[in-house]
Design a protein that fits this description.
Layout lengths: L1 E4 L1 E12 L5 E10 L14 E7 L7 E5 L9 H12 L6 E6 L10 H16 L6 H11 L3 H6 L3 E4 L4 E4 L8 E7 L5 H6 L21 H4 L4 H8 L1 H12 L4 E4 L6 E5 L2 H11 L5 E8 L1
Parallel strand pairs: 5-6
Antiparallel strand pairs: 1-4, 2-3, 3-7, 4-6, 7-8, 9-11, 9-12, 10-11
Helix pairs in contact: 1-2, 2-3, 7-8
């Protein structure tokens, strides 16, 4: 079986409390992106391609193939498969291959999505042996935003991102310009200057407000610590608004930024105007 793996953006991200275990409680709204990538209406190469097929090996084993230059053990797909087979040691042997297109370390959950889809596909091959709740528990062991990709529909998230509540937000008809800068930001860097504070807006009600009001209502708190360190990212966000974005933001803990535009033409014109910016590595035009 083959799956085309999409990514996500964060619409608002509030860091509300530092926990005793050293992690932070967050409030955010995940929105899937790339669901239309590769279709005639949005022929952009963006989604990862994940394939799971029988390997013919002994039960409880798997093979992992990837073009990544990094050791397989560091890949979330490998870790997801290892975890699944530890819990279901008699699951049929499978060969897993991954072709990457979603940029890593960009705040859009590409690796997390790969891991979650791996769990789903292995579970399907194993006769759906794990329940949805068990899959969610496994996903959380791999990453805070992994459970979202099992749901893969707009959702409000609390805790470290694992407590999910679907929200009726629909951005169909809008277009997204995703901007990948050259700069890379580690999770440690992103959290270094963060000051937790009580949220000022309930993101569960974001769908009740028009997109052109969001810039006055919601904020990604990581911008407060990241933009002073990397002013070029603040400049990209400003330019997204200059080029006509209805709403623009850093996503996740960075480093990608995005702008939401009212039409494909507006987003394409914005992408053209940003191509001369030497701080930008690549852009992706995605139908929402």
């Amino acid at each position: 079986m083959i799956k085309f793996v999409n990514a996500k953006i964060n619409l608002g991200l509030q860091i509300v409390k530092r926990r005793d275990d050293g992690y932070h409680d967050l409030q955010t709204l995940f929105y899937p992106i790339g669901l239309h990538a590769g279709t005639p209406g949005n022929p952009v190469e963006f989604c990862d391609i994940l394939e799971v097929t029988p390997s013919g090996g002994p039960a409880g084993t798997f093979e992992f193939l990837s073009c990544s230059p990094y050791p397989a053990e560091q890949n979330l797909v490998y870790r997801a498969a290892k975890l699944y087979y530890e819990i279901f040691p008699t699951a049929p042997a499978m060969r897993i291959s991954l072709e990457k297109h979603i940029p890593d370390g960009a705040g859009i959950g590409g690796g997390s999505a790969d891991a979650s889809l791996t769990l789903q596909m292995l579970n399907e091959a194993n006769g759906f042996a794990a329940t949805d709740a068990e899959l969610a528990d496994m996903a959380l062991k791999l990453g805070a935003d992994c459970p979202f990709f099992l749901l893969n529909t707009p959702a409000y998230a609390e805790g470290v991102g694992e407590r999910l509540q679907p929200v009726p937000l629909d951005l169909a008809g809008s277009w997204l310009l995703l901007v990948r800068p050259h700069v890379r930001i580690s999770t440690k860097e992103a959290f270094a200057g963060v000051t937790p504070r009580k949220s000022t807006f309930d993101l569960r009600g974001l769908h009740l407000f028009s997109v052109d009001t969001w810039k006055f209502l919601v904020h990604n708190d990581f911008e407060d610590s990241i933009f002073p360190q990397f002013p070029e990212l603040a400049a990209i966000k400003k330019n997204l608004y200059v080029t006509g974005a209805i709403y623009a933001s850093l996503t996740g803990s960075g480093s990608c930024l995005f702008g939401i535009y009212s039409s494909e033409q507006a987003a394409a014109q914005a992408a053209d105007s940003l191509r001369s910016d030497s701080t930008i590595q690549s852009t992706y035009l995605l139908q929402l």
